[in-house]
Amino acid sequence: MKNENPSLLIQKYINGTASPEEREQLLNWYRSQQPETVEWPSATETEEKQVYDRMLSKIDQHIDASSLPSRPLSKWYYIAAAAAIFMVGSFATVLYLDKAAPEKIQVLTYKNDVKPGGNKAILKLADGSELVLDGATTATFAHQQGLNIARISDGQLAFDKQPEATQTDSGAPKYNTISTPKGGQYRIILPDGTKVWLNAISSIRFPSYFSAGERRVEITGEAYFEVSKNKQMPFRVISGQQALEVLGTKFNINAYTNEPQINTTLAEGSIRLNRINASESSIVKPGEQAQLKTGNSKLGAKIVAADLDEVLAWKNDAFVFNDMPITEIMQQIERWYDVELVYSGAKPDLRFTGIIPRNSNLSTFLKVLEGSGGLKFGIEHKKVFIQSTR
Q: What is the pTM of this model?
C-alpha cells in the first residue's frame, strides 16, 4: 500500500469510481492499521465536516463502533478510516444480505409436504408391557382381571363393559395408560361404557374396573368425554391442578402443560370443578367454558361463554377458527402434523377465521392461511418456517 495513494483511493471510493481492485487496496490499507497521515484532496473545513459526519452516521447504521481501533489518529486519518470502515460495513451488509437471501428463499419454499396425523397410540398395561395401537386390525389382544381388551375399529379400543356393582376377585384394580404422540389421536371405551376421544400428545390413565363408588381417571393434553350415566358412581377427571366431577354428560378438557390455563367446555349436562386442595368449586352449564389458570395461581375458575364449534372441531375431524390468534393455530399445527415451528423474527400478531378439514395435507393448510394475507410459510422436512409480511 506504500506505493499507492490513499487519498486518491478514498476519493475514488467516495465518488463511486473505485475499481474492485482499488477497493480491495483501500481495505487492505485500513487493515494494516499504520498510523500514517493521509492528505485529503482539497476541501474546506465545512466539506470535511460534512463528509466526516455522513460517514460516521453510516458507520453507526452498519457496524459496531466499538470495533474501531483506539489509537490516536490525525483528523484526515479518521476520515480515511471512516471511509474504509464504511466500506467494510457496506461489504459486511452486502455479504450478510447475500447470505440471508438464500435462507429467505428457503424459508418460503415448500420443499416437501407433510401428511396429517392419524390413529396412533400406545397402551401401557399395568404390568408395564406396551402395545402399539396403530393400524386397523380388529381383535381381542389382551385380558385383564376378567375383562377383554380389544380394538373394535381403526382408532378405537374397548374394554368389556363391567356389570354394574361388579367387583372382581382379582384384588385391587390395575391401572392402564393410553397415550397419543404428536400427530396421533385415539378413542377408548372404558369399562363403564364411557367414551373418550384423545387428541394428539395426550394421555388417559384409568383402572381395569371402577370400584368403591367412584369412577376416576387422569388425563394430560386434550380429551373429550361422553360419560355413561351412573348416579351411584360419580365420574371424576383429574387434569393437572383441576378436579372435575360429573354424573353423566359430554365435555372437553384442554389441559396441555404448555398452555397458561386449563379450559373445560361443557356440551351437555352439568359439571362441577375445583382447584385441587381448594374448597371453592364452580358449576359449569352447557355452552360455558371454565378457565382455570395454572402455575402459581390460586384463583378459582373463570366461567365464560364457549364457542362449541371451535372447541369440539378436532373431535369432528376439522379445524374451526373464529378470530383465533395465529400463534394458537400454529400450536395446533405443531401437534397434529408433528412438526417444529421456526419463526422468522417476532411472532406475528394476526388472527384468522375459517374452517379447514383435519385430513388436509400441511401445504394445503398453510396456503389457506397465506391466502388471508400477512404470512408466508415454508416447509423443509419436519420444520415449518413462519414469516410475517406486514
A: 0.70
